[in-house]
Structures are given as structure tokens and as C-alpha cells.
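Chapter review. Work through the record for TonB-dependent receptor before attempting the end-of-chapter questions.
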Amino acid sequence: MEDVIQKIEQETDLHFFYVEDWMKQSKVTVNFKNTPVDTVLEQVFEETLLNFHLLDNSRIVITRSNIIYDRLPQGFFPDTTGVAVEQPTASTKYNPVFYNKETRSNTTTETVYIGKETQATGSGYFNLSGRVTTHETGEPISNLAVLIKGTEIGTVTDQNGQYSLRLPAGEHLLETRSFGNEDILTRVVIYNDGVYNLKLREDYELLGEVLVDSDQAQNVEDAIGGTENINVEEIKNIPLILGERDVMKVAVTLPGISTTGEGSAGFNVRGGKTDQNLILIDDAVIYNPAHFFGIFSAINPFTTGDITIYKGNIPAQFGGRLSSVFDITSKDANTEKFAGEVSVGPVTSNVALEIPVIKEKSGLLIGGRSTYSDWILKNLDDESLKDSKASFYDVIAKYHHNFNDKTSLRTTGYYSRDNFSITSDSLFNYQNLLFSMKLNHKLNEKNDGSLIVSNSNYNFDIDYESDFNDNFTSGYKINETEIKLNMRYLHSAAHKFDYGISTKLYNVHPGELEPLGSESIVEPLQIPKEKGLESAIYIADNFKVNDKLLLSAGLRYSHYAALGEKTQKIYEEGLPQSEATVIDSIQYGKNEVIETYGGPEVRLSARYFLLPDLSLKLSYNNAYQYIHTLSNNTTVSPTDTYKLTDKNIKPQRADQYSLGLYKNFDNNMYEVSLEGYYKKSENILDYKVGAQLFLNENIETEVLQGEGRSFGAEFLLKKTEGRLNGWLGYTYSRSELKLDGNYREQIVNSGEYFPANYDKPHDLSVVANYKVTQRFSFSANFVYQTGRPVTYPTGKYMQNGIEYVLYSDRNQFRIPDYYRLDLSFNVEGNHKIKKFAHSFWNISVYNVLGRNNPYSVFFVTEQGEVKAYKSSIFSIPVPTITYNFRF
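C-alpha cells for TonB-dependent receptor:
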């Protein structure tokens, strides 16, 4: 551009005054002939922030952003004489932008100029937007207050660090406020729309110890109760099995969340079945979040950024499950420099790498875990275990790209695989595969949204080999694809609306059986596929009634359609479903609607401040679930199958009520909560005695649907600061089922309520960490649980010369109670700032007391006698040493 100016000076008598650096930032290509110089300059400067002013016939001053005025417009000063003054015409009317230059000369406040001034600028409003990141790592800073000093104008940055303000032209003082980052004050002069990005340094204080928590009173202030947040960084000290840092095992120590036993996959939340939990990794469903029968979690802690668990009032944007939502979000990669974290243990290793792709804009996160546990099995004294196999691995990759301050893209891919064969002729393997893509876009300062596309796949295979020519291979697969649009509208300080729409397509391959080898006598079997379409629309509002009362109200309408191609049997109404009661069979074509279900789902919760740090929360929600798990909940096998709702199996439905008190003490150092709940369920799927669940084409003849109820109270005491920190969680809960009908085979336990397989009334967890110094600490984890219900044989009888076993009512007895104590010693590396990596050692002992906790009790008949046996996972103390380092 400077060449253009010099060329004009050579061809004319004009002389320009300007700052050379302004000219070096732009290049232009122009072609003029016999054109006035002002027309030339207007076109040359059109795409820049530069303006020009003709001082006289030979001198031109170039300015950046602002315009030089040599006269004021007519009517600029108010008339005080009372004589009417002629108003300027539209062609001559302009409004200069003024700012107080004198005050700027006496301060160090930085001044920035936004946009390019025109003669109409002074009467307009313009958009100022940008992105706020950390100076050290380039990571976005969310929930940062961006304010205009002396006014009520302000906003907060979103999760991508983006903000947007609409301001009148002129001078403004822009300030930022946050915890953990410096506060800055900048003078901005607005001439037009523009972008102003900020980089903030971390705010350090020379104190002995400082804990900064921007959400320290969130548990008291939020409207939604029954919500848990897990800090992934803090759980590294908790002693867990074989030194594996496990975010899902930590969740089990929180009130209201339990498992059926040690080594079990799945979670029971507030008395719900394991299939009633929606577990998401970056908005994609993971069906089996466990490795090796639930001993390890399938969630990589090194790549996980945030975990929020909703077990009370589930937000309206989530649906399809009755009990809970585990919303797991992986981290964004560092966009400034290469970073990573590595863990090496006795049976597992873990690595996570953060790779900048485009500085300050995009990065790639890659994580992987694997086990090498076979060497343990081969060195056991038990000969039957020496040929056993057990291995798993998982990988995750996430790429994020910030196109600008309004638009960003995040994509995640995840894959896990397990292989095992324990004292049997069968080789089992199962896989999770999921993908998600999320496009975030901010329309304006009040509206933003996300478009999400995800796909999830889960399948397992069984290879069986024996000496009797009955070798076979068998498999199962479920696949779902979902599209969601989530929108947010910030109507005002009192109303914040969330709304959206979603649709999900299920494809289920219920199973197949194929002969393995040419000599196998097994007959092939293929169970027909199932398909279903689940859709929903929702709207929710956070309404601040006054300083004490906050409401969160949502309405979701879900709709489900069972689709062909499929043959559906029709059973005689009022009679038990069996082969004897089939009255018709209907063939449905591809994608033809077989049956539809649906209804409204209410999500309502309220928070009321009894005191500034004591709140009362009340909530109600109901939900529909259109997918069922076929499992008896007493086996550690991962071969549970899923059944879609159709004409003969109705969707599950539940209503939940909860009431809780939340209180913080001593400047939020202590958190205390007490919450009670009651849940009523319908169409809960259970199995008949002796049911064949796998590879059964007519599964409706093997199951029953009945009522369920669960109720309980949850208590949590948490200390967040100090040398001694941790929490104590206690849950009293009951979960019961009722299977009743007009016929004997529909009735269980005389049609009365009986304990569910996962009913465990008392559940106590204590997690404690004691920091001796900044580098050395001790941790302890204690768990007590009531034994799980079980059905025992209570006698024998003879009929027609044959001896039979008489069993008790279903789940009338319980296995022994479960308790376990774990201890660990943690050593941090030295805290030098300039070194390649920061290390961390964990030395732990799992099950210090050597308690032989039974997972299940079962009975076999040997030589005419009924004998009881119990199975357990870890019956002795298990020591572990793990080395971690981060760079």
C-alpha cells in the first residue's frame, strides 16, 4: 500500500503524512486513469481501517480508524437564543465520535480502536466480540465477566472463551473479572463492528496456600438437586484396585450410586437398573463402560475433562433413560505447546498426548490404555487358571478447531476392546466404538447453539471350542445414530431458555449362532433384526423469581416408533404370552411402523434460600425408556443383550420426587446435603424362572413386566480444603419389584413387592486424604454395603420318585455384607518449575483387611446333596505401585 501512496506522490503535487507500519499490513492491486484522488483513496482504503483528510490542496493526512473533522455539523451545539435553527439535511448530517484525550494522558490504561469510523458512526450501535484465552497455554477462559465500567452492560464468556457485546459508538472502559486470572482495564473506542481478543495471565499471590474455586457454593445455589461433579485431577490420590485411576469407581463412593458387587459392570442409581443410566462420552452413548467384568473402567482419566452426574432432576435436553445421566466431557488439547501424561502400573499403562495443530486455534488429544495382565494369570498356583487370558485396550482421539470467536468444531472418536477366557473353553470379546461431532455457533450475544451428530456401536462375540464337535461362534450387536440440535436463548437476567430437537435410530442384531469348523454339528441360527426410531423436542427455562427463589422448568415430548422389517406375533389378550396363546402373526415391511409410544416428560425443580448458605430444593420429573436390558443381574458376564420396545413389550416409565437440604459451612470449606427421594416405575422388565434370554426369537415369552418402586435418603459431608479433605457419603435405599397377574406364571412372590437383585439398603463410603507436606500424603477409602438379595433353596421333596429342590420366595435372603478398606501413600515429585516432567508415585494396598467379600452365592447338587458356594473377586490384600509423570 505504501507503494501506491508513493506512486500518487510521484504523479501529483500531493504529499501524504502517515505512520509507515499502517501501510505494511495490507497489499492492494488497483488500476486508475484520469480519476480524482479522493476516489482513488476511498477504493484503496475500502477494506482497511484507514481514513484520509485533505488539509489543503497539497497535503493529505492518513488516520487509522477515526475521521478528522475540520468543522462541526450544523446544530451540534444546542441553541439558547430561542430562535429556530434550520436542521441539517440528511446529506450533510453527521455525528462525530469524541473521546476524552486528556484523561488518557495521565494513565497507563491501554487504548484500542475498534472498527472504522464513517460519518454515520456516532449515532449507531456496534458489535464488539472476541475470545479470551490464557497467556500461558492458550486455553479458553470460560465464565469470565466482561463488563463496561460505569454501566450495566456486560456478559460472560462461554465454554470456548468467546464473548459478544453491543455498544454505542464512542469511548468505553472494558474490564474483566475472574478468579485465577488477572483483571484488566482497557479503554476501547468503538467506531464500527470489530474483534478484540484478550490474553490473560494467571493471577498469582505470594501466600502460603491459595485455593480458588469459582463454583464453591454451586451445590447450594443451583436449582437442580441430586447432581454430582467429579474433579478428575483430585481423584489421583484415591486408592483403587491395581493402581488404576478410575473416575467411575469414584462415582460409586458418592451417595445414591452403587453396583451389585465387586467386579460388576454397570451402576444402580437411586434404586434403578443398570440399563436405566445414560452414559455419554462427548455426547455419544457408551453401552458398556467397563473392562474385565467391571474391575476397570473404560473411561480414560487422562483425557477426561469433566464429569457431571444427574441422578435427581435430569435436564430436559437428556432423555431415553429413567435413572441418571453420566455426562462425560473429554479435555481440549493444549493449542500452545506439546504436552502429555503417562502412567505405568503392574498390569496397565496409560498415555495421553496433547498436540497443537494450529497455534491458538486447534489441537489434537490422543489417549490410549492397555493391560498386560496375562503374566499374572500364568504365574498363579491354580493350574486351571494358567491357560486363561484377560486383556483389554482403549483409544480415544479428539480434535477441536476454533474457526473464529463465534464458531468452533469438536470431533471425538473412541474404541475399546476386551478379550478374556477364564477356566473355560470359550473366548469372549466385546467392543465399544463411538464417534461424535459437535459444531458450536454463537448467532449473537443472546443466541447460541450446537449441532451434534453421534454414532455408537457395541457388540460381543463368543468362540466356543470343545472335544465334542459342537464348536460354535456367536455374536450380538447394537448400533445407534443420533442427531441433536441444542439452542440457548438469553432472554434476560431472569430467563434463560434452552430448547432443541433430537432423533435417534436404533439397529439391533439380537444374535446369531454359526458352526465353528467344518466338523461342527451346530445348526446355524439367525435372530431377526430390530429397528426403532426415538425422537424428542424440548424446552426449558431457568427462571429467577427473586433473590431467594429459583425455578428450573422443562418440558420434553418423546416419541418412539418400532420399525420393520419384522414378523410380529400377536397373543391372545389377557392371557400369558407363550407359544400356546399365539393367535396371529403379522409381517411388517422395511421401515414400516409396527407400534408407536410416547408422551410428555416434565422436568421441574426449585431452589429456595432459607438462609444465605442454606437452601431447600424440590424436584419432580418423569421419563420414558424405550430400550431394555435382558439380564438377571447376578452374572459378571458382559454378554447382556438389549431389547427394543415393540408391540408386545411396552416402554419403561418412571416418576421421581425428591426433597433436599443443602448447607455450606466455614466459608464453603464444608458441604453438607441431605436429600430424600421416591420413585415409582412401570413396565420394568424381569425374567421368568429358568428363562432363556440369549438367542431367543420370542423373548417376550421369557420375561415379565411389572411395577417398581424405590425410595431412600442420601447424606453427604464433604471437606474441600485443608490438610485433611475428602467426603463421607451414606445412602439408605430400597428398591422393590412387583410382578402380578391373573395367571400363576405371571405372579412372583404371591404378587407382593419383593427386593430387586440390586437392593442394598445401607451403603457407606468414606474417602479421606491427609497431606503431610506439599509432596507427601496418605489416602484411605472405606466401603460398607448391605449384602445383595439372593434366592436360597430351603428344602427338598419327592414327587413320583424324583427328588426336587424347594426354593424360597425370590430374593428372600441376602449374601453376607460387603466391606473393604484401602490405603495408599502418595509422593509428588519436586516442585521445580523448569524441568521436563512432573512426577507422581502412588503406593496402595487394595482390601487391606483381606476381606473375602462374596460377589454371588450359588448352589449345586453333588451326590444327592445341595451344596452352597460363593464366588469372590479379591479375597486378599492387593498391593500396587504406580508411577505417573506429566510433561
